[in-house]
Specification:
The complex is a heterodimer of chains A (216) and B (154).
Chain A lengths: L1 H11 L3 H23 L7 H4 L5 H15 L2 H4 L9 E2 L4 E2 L12 E2 L2 E2 H4 L33 H9 L9 H7 L3 H4 L15 H13 L9
Antiparallel strand pairs in A: 1-2, 3-4
Chain B lengths: L1 E5 L2 E5 L7 H9 L17 E4 L2 E4 L12 E3 L11 H8 L9 H14 L5 H7 L10 H16 L3
Parallel strand pairs in B: 1-5
Antiparallel strand pairs in B: 1-2, 3-4, 3-5
């Protein structure tokens, strides 16, 4: 009986030299199958779509972005205090309107009480946009006084950037209020880069890894 | 043709949609209580309520007010008896009076949103209204007094 069993098993089991490579092959096949369950669509093209991370290129792009964000057209509504700034020298806004809880002003001094849906014609008249506002009191998103390192870190942190995901950050370059910076109204200079150059640098900074310049 | 609701009356105006709301109110409709001061949203003399918010009508295009509710100083109360108007009279606030329709319209928004304002609240709310006679201290007193009148249901 014992002999019969041995013969039968030999008949079905491969010899030792064949068994080990077959086992390895089976494990690899299983791992491949498991990984394919994570990507039901089959080929994972994410590595093809996303540019490789590159800290040098990313930081270089951010330094261009930084020039724009620290220009009066952006920084004047991202002050370190609760009063917006004004003018090419970023002085405190005349009348000292307050940020308010929602970033849209207080009482009779709400942003939209002066700022219309479009620029008011005339030299130094109030610039306009339908969504004119500052960041809200619970997330002030300050630009004024921030170093490149601090600002880059702040911009990519959802708890400090208005809860924006990477995708929302990418889309922010096309936000109507951001774009309004390049239509500042008479008597105001636009940011130092063109809107297209800014958008390109912004996207490059994020897609190359959203690295922060080193703190000096 | 522009259709405007001012002080709960409807007006049909044949004006440019970009005309400042102030011109429409004063020159076309004929309600002259609202004043022209600077024409650049710097002084507050032209303040009216647009859907309850105190807008500077000198820079507000009339087209923005279409389909909205405009209230001027003439429509602030039915019998000139808004608590602020009563307090203004009682404390004899105005000197030349030119800026005071704007002052009252701003103060009315403050008292609606904050029935018990502090001095700081008043300063913040009234920062857009300039008074060339310097009646600021009486304005502040009158707003506190109006808050009391409002509390007592007057």
């Amino acid at each position: 009986m014992q002999q019969l069993l041995t013969i039968k098993l030999r008949h079905f089991l491969p010899n030792k030299t064949v068994t080990f490579p077959a086992f390895i092959f089976a494990v690899i096949a299983l791992m491949a199958a498991m990984s394919s369950t994570k990507e039901p669509s089959g080929l994972d093209t994410s590595s093809l779509e996303k540019p490789r991370k590159d800290s040098i290129e990313s930081v270089k792009a951010f330094m261009q972005v930084y020039q724009v964000l620290m220009s009066p057209r952006c920084m004047n509504c991202h002050p370190s205090g609760d009063v917006p700034l004004q003018g090419e020298d970023s002085h405190l806004h005349a009348m000292q309107p307050q940020r308010g809880k929602d970033g849209r002003g207080l009482y009779a001094m709400k942003c939209a009480n002066c700022h219309q849906a479009a620029n008011t014609p005339g030299l130094h008249m109030p610039p306009g946009n339908p969504n004119w506002h500052m960041p809200p009191a619970d997330m002030k998103m300050v630009f004024q006084g921030r170093t490149p390192h601090q600002l880059a870190k702040q911009l990519i942190h959802p708890a400090q950037n208005g809860h924006k995901s990477r995708e929302q950050l990418l889309a922010h370059a096309a936000d109507a209020l951001v774009i309004a910076s390049w239509n500042p109204g008479e008597g105001r200079t636009p940011p130092p880069l063109s809107q297209e150059e800014f958008a390109k640098a912004w996207v490059k900074w994020i897609k190359k890894g959203a690295y922060a310049p080193a703190e000096k | 043709m522009i259709t405007l609701s001012v002080n709960k009356k409807t007006y049909q105006l044949d004006v440019d949609p970009n005309m400042p709301l102030l011109w429409a109110i004063r020159d076309v409709i004929g309600l002259t209580g609202t004043k022209y001061g600077c024409g650049a949203a710097q002084c507050g003399a032209c303040m009216v309520h647009l859907n309850g918010e105190a807008v500077f009508s000198c820079v507000t295009p009339v087209s923005r007010a279409v389909g909205q509710q405009v209230i001027t100083i003439e429509g602030l109360s039915a019998g000139n008896d808004h608590p602020l108007q009563l307090a203004w009279q009682e404390l004899d606030v105005p000197q030349c009076g030119y800026c005071h329709s704007g002052q009252l319209m701003s103060a009315a928004v403050l008292l609606r949103e904050n029935p018990n304002p502090t001095d700081e609240d008043i300063d913040q709310a009234m920062a857009g209204n300039i008074c060339r006679c310097g009646t600021y201290s009486r304005i502040r007193k009158a707003i506190h007094h109006a808050a009391e009148l409002q509390k007592n249901g007057k």
